[in-house]
């Protein structure tokens, strides 16, 4: 079993706990699922990053008679950043646009989960120069969670 990584994001009294499993990074959010995604959308829009879709998984589950804790999926990205990746490796289109899930665990804690850019780099054999185009999510999330 892997130990969670503890990352101090600034010289502040709060630290963010991040865990990585199978190329997925998860970190806690102090906000509700909806507020977490709202904050992320605002941050992305302020940087002219396209929001392709926002899916409320709880609402969709309810439509077919299932119960699901709060969960929302956000698809976002930049064709300017993603296109060079797809030119180099067309199958990366399976993972682009970027995705992020905000979800509430059984204990009531809210988590933000997304693919680690280094995992995508390894999975698709991308160069450092190419992966830098999508290696921005951690810094964006840092802004959202403070």
| Strand-pairing-aware structural class | alpha+beta
Strand order of the largest sheet: 1-2-3-7-6-5-4
Identify the overall geometry.
globular
Tell me about the biggest sheet? 7 strands, antiparallel
Tell me how many strands there are: 7
Strand content: 25-35%
Mean pLDDT: 87
DSSP helical segment count: 6
Order of SSEs, N→C? EEEHEHEHEEHHH
What's the quaternary structure here? single chain
Structure characteristics:
146 residues, alpha+beta, 7-stranded antiparallel sheet, 6 helices, 36% helix, disordered N terminus
Written account of the structure:
The protein is an alpha+beta fold and 146 residues long. It has helices at residues 33-46, 57-63, 79-88, 117-124, 128-131, 137-145; strands at 5-7, 16-21, 24-29, 50-56, 71-77, 98-104, 110-115. 36% of the residues lie in helices and 29% in strands. Strands 1-2-3-7-6-5-4 form a seven-stranded antiparallel β-sheet. A hairpin with an 8-residue loop joins β1 and β2. The longest helix is centred in the first third of the chain and has 14 residues, at 33-46. Residues 1-16 have low confidence and may be disordered.
Structure summary:
This protein has 146 residues and is of the alpha+beta class.
Detail the topology: elements first, then pairings.
Elements: E1 5-7, E2 16-21, E3 24-29, H1 33-46, E4 50-56, H2 57-63, E5 71-77, H3 79-88, E6 98-104, E7 110-115, H4 117-124, H5 128-131, H6 137-145
Antiparallel strand pairs: 1-2, 2-3, 3-7, 4-5, 5-6, 6-7
Helix pairs in contact: 1-6
């Amino acid at each position: 079993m892997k130990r969670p990584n503890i990352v101090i994001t600034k010289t502040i009294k709060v630290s963010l706990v991040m865990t990585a499993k199978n190329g997925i990074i998860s970190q806690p959010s102090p906000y509700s699922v909806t507020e977490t995604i709202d904050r992320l959308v605002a941050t992305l829009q302020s940087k002219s990053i396209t929001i392709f879709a926002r899916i409320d998984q709880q609402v969709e589950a309810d439509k077919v008679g299932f119960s699901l804790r709060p969960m929302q999926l956000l698809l976002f990205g930049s064709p300017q950043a993603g296109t060079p990746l797809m030119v180099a490796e067309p199958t990366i289109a399976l993972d682009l646009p970027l995705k992020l899930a905000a979800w509430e665990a059984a204990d009531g804690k809210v988590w933000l989960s997304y693919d680690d850019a280094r995992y995508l780099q390894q999975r698709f054999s991308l160069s450092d120069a190419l992966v830098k185009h999508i290696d921005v999510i951690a810094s964006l999330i840092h802004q959202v969670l403070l």
